[in-house]
Amino acid sequence: MIGAVPVAVSALLALASAVDSHAQEPAQKARQLSAEGVLEEVLVTARRREEIMQTTPIAVSAFNALALEYRGVTSLDEIERYVPNLTLQNNPGYTASSNVSTIYIRGVGQKDHLATVEPGVGLYLDGVYIARSLGAVLDVIDVEQIEVLRGPQGTLFGRNTIGGAISVNTVRPQIGGDFGGELGLAVGSDDRLNLKGALEVPLGDSLAIRASLASLEQDGYVTRQSDGADLGNEDTLTGRFALAWMPTESLSVDINADYSQMKTNAAAFELLGIDFTDLSQFNGLVASVPPPMVFIHNVTFAATAPGVPCAVTDVAGNGITSNPDSPNCMDERYLLDRGRSAATEIEDPELDVWGVAGTVAWDFSDSMTFKSITGWRELDSLEGQDGDISPHRIAHWTVEMEQEQFTQEFQLLGSHADWNWILGAYYFKEEGTDRNTLDFTVSNFLSGGAFDNESMALFAQATWDISDILHLTVGGRYTDEEKKFHPDQYILKNYFQGFSELVPPDHPLAALDAFFLQEGYRILPDLEKKIDVSEFTPMASLSWDVSDDVMIYGSYSEGFKSGGFTQRVFPPAVPGITVPAGLSGTDLIPTFDPEFVDAYELGLKSTFLEGRARLNAALFYSDYEDMQVQAFNSVAPVTKNVGAASIQGAELEMQLAPGEGWLIDVMGAWLDAKYDEIDSNTTLIDEGNAFERVPEWAANLGLSKEWLSSYGQWIARVDWSYRDEVYNDAYNTEIMKTDSYQLWDARLQWVSDSEDWTVIASGRNLSDEDYLVTGVWGLAFQTYTGVYNRGREYSLEVRWQF
User: Fold this and answer.
1) Which residues contact 637 (CB under 8 A, 6 or more apart)?
2) Which of 302, 441, 455, 498 could link 328 by a cystine bridge, Cβ 3.0 to 4.6 Å?
3) Which residues are in the TonB-dependent receptor plug domain (predicted)?
């Protein structure tokens, strides 16, 4: 089938050429090219002011609404293949939600959804920071532009942008524009049914509003055997509202509101393998040896349950031999064919997210502007997950999170003579609860607690035009933040209560009846712990305009990612038994420190062939200290500061318009990441391990053709992308490795002469590539689980513009 894809692609492009030969005239609305066939200028706000991308000394990728449409991008994670050194996945991890963002830029990011852990890449919607990864895989509905800034953005964007930042800006109503809108219907594979609508209404000469609404539905692609539910499905209702008001020529007010409700049948997890390793080998290497849940299940509950018992051979955990005639055993019988899951239904996920942003801009002189950006966001999430993917109760959990946040930013932008500058103040407040119920073989307990985070910052950045061709930019940000965590964690039920009275005192399982594992015993003290962090993050860059079309720049920047609290704790923290003697009070609540980076970058931005070609490239090196990585501590992975690391890489982006209506896009990325120092004794991570979710090589090649014929306007596009192999955890677990893969996508779009009607036929993953999107290793519950990609997809979309 792979070999047939280039043939199909060639046929599509041949069709484009054939039809083009009968074209009446060049495309008058060559959407990414000007009427002269040169590349359109790209504007970005990477430095918090509108600038031409080719004169901005930052590695930034930008996609306006047309570029997103040409690529068929409907969800934020789909831009991954077009941006160098970006990993952006919808990764459920230790949740069951089908909307959890995992974002890495240049090897730095975060995959955990916990509220006590911070992301490494900042995500902004209409200028407002989105603090949590749940619900952050935004649907690309009424989006004007997406910008991806690579490298630390600690000065202008602030906290938790150590890897970079992604800025999503929605469509602004046009004041003085026309009444209009559109309706769209899309159908496709797996019973996809998408309904979309937008309406824009001008209200006089100074006010306009816009509203959009979308219903997105698609069946899942993994069947849960117990009830026939399709896992990995989509059922989303999302809407946006925007208001633009300009009472005077110098004052503008923009209000943007969004709401999304997502309901699914749980993420499409499948069982990859079962680890029957003797876990005693980990003794002394982790804080406490995790109880091997599958083994305990088989030698206790499965061995004594009614009916045929589950046979075992070794009480130490080695050489488990299950009885195929026993329905009670947990073993390889649940390693089913692709697309089938033996999981138990726990709690179907439901996620509600909404927010409102207000931006006020006042040009109080010809050279100075005051801007205020205010944001309020809330999320409410509940989901359950079967971590063992079997009918047995070995690792079940529910995740319930409620979060609300308020942000306020003030900016003062100005210019004078050879200077332009920005001064700013920022405030962030977040609070909520993140509670998890975990029902394991040995115990049922409550984890999580309440969190309260507050951050304040002052920042400044200025650019001095030393000469007509030399420009120096310096800046810095001072951040002060306070984080609080109040754990609410205790044992709900001990399934081995009284077991110590039935077996000899030295029996390996007698410890499961310990006093600190009894109902009501607190895992962490019922106290609030606080950590404070104050950091200054500077930056400097120097750019040289070699010519009108070529710029070279070099930059240095620093960044940091906040520390936090360890909320996944089991067994309970008992001084002298499970934790060192002498600890008490809040000292029993574990924390981890911030991580820091010094980043160096050398870049090139160029335009040539009389505006028909654009090439941007960057080389970078980053030096990390106290790097945060997920490591195991008993039953689940927790964030730890593992040591020092260095990352280097190269990036290339090119666009070429070789002929009338033709456009070629090229992206290439190389990344080399390694640990320089690591505490292997307490993390089990080897210094030679590869970074998780970071491919060494990635590439994309896109070819599109626009033409005008007697049938209307046509746009054809084909994309090929490649990603190198990656590991899905820091331990480089082989069974959870994602092998390298290639993807082919194609799209044909027709627009009527009147521009009232649009029809789009598209295909994604045409070669039906099968690869692992994410993997989860449950050290204690001895299972490897993962989510594969959805296979080949086709869709047909019809839109009516009015």
Assistant:
1) 94, 112, 568, 630, 631, 729, 779
2) 302
3) 54-165
Task: Give the separation between CA 353 and CA 380, rounded to whole angstroms.
Answer: 7
Burial class (CB in 10 A: 0-12, 13-18, 19+), 14: exposed
Report if residue 499 sits inside a domain.
no
Residue 221: give its domain's CATH number. Answer: 2.40.170.20
- List Cβ neighbours of 648 (8 Å cut-off, separation of 6 or more): 619, 620, 621, 622, 671, 672
Q: Are 748 and 716 in contact (CB under 8 A)?
A: yes
| Range list of β-strands (E), 249-288 | 251-263, 269-274
Number of domains in the chain: 1
Average pLDDT over residues 695-721: 96
| The two three-digit tokens of residue 794, written as one number | 């086709």
d(CA 430, CA 481) in angstroms, rounded, equals: 11
Sequence-distant (6+) residues with CB within 8 A of 338 are 270, 770, 788
Q: What angle do CA 599, 605, 607 make, to 5 degrees?
A: 170
* 642, part of any domain: yes
For residue 208, give both structure tokens. Answer: 């306009």
Map tokens 């539905």 to a residue: 217
Phi, psi (5° rounding) for residue 55?
A: -110, 10
**One-letter amino acid of 640:** K
Strand pairing category for 222-224 and 340-341 = parallel
Please, are residues 693 and 109 in contact by the beta-carbon 8 Å criterion? Answer: yes
Query: What sign for the dihedral angle of Cα 301, 305, 310, 315?
Result: positive
Query: 782 is written with which tokens?
Result: 């001895």
Q: Answer whether 740's CB lies under 8 Å from 726's CB.
A: no
Give the pair of three-digit tokens for residue 104: 């890495």
Confidence class for position 287, pLDDT limits 50, 70, 90? very low
CA 123 to chain centre: 9
Q: Which of 26-40, 118-132, 682-696 is least confident?
A: 26-40
- Residue 571: is the preceding peptide bond cis (ω within 30°)? yes
Q: Tell which residue, 83, 77, 38, has the closest CA to residue 60.
A: 83
Cα–Cα dist 144/325, whole Å = 60
Q: Would residue 516 count as lying in a domain? A: no
Residues in CB range of 677: below 8 A, 6 or more apart: 643, 644, 687
pLDDT in tens, 586-642: 999 999 999 999 999 999 999 999 999 999 999 999 999 999 998 876 677 889 998
CA distance 377 to 134: 12
The confidence band for 312, taking pLDDT boundaries of 50, 70 and 90, is low
CA distances from 26 to 298, 657, 755, 758 (A): 72, 14, 16, 19
Under DSSP, the state recorded for 644 is: E
Amino acid identity, position 189: S
pLDDT of 211-255, one tens digit each? 999 999 999 999 999 999 999 999 999 999 999 999 999 999 999
Do 653 and 615 contact (CB within 8 A), yes or no? yes
pLDDT tier at 765, thresholds 50, 70, 90: very high
Predicted pLDDT of residue 326 = 83
What is this structure's pTM? Answer: 0.92
Q: Please check whether residue 517 lies inside any domain of the structure.
A: no
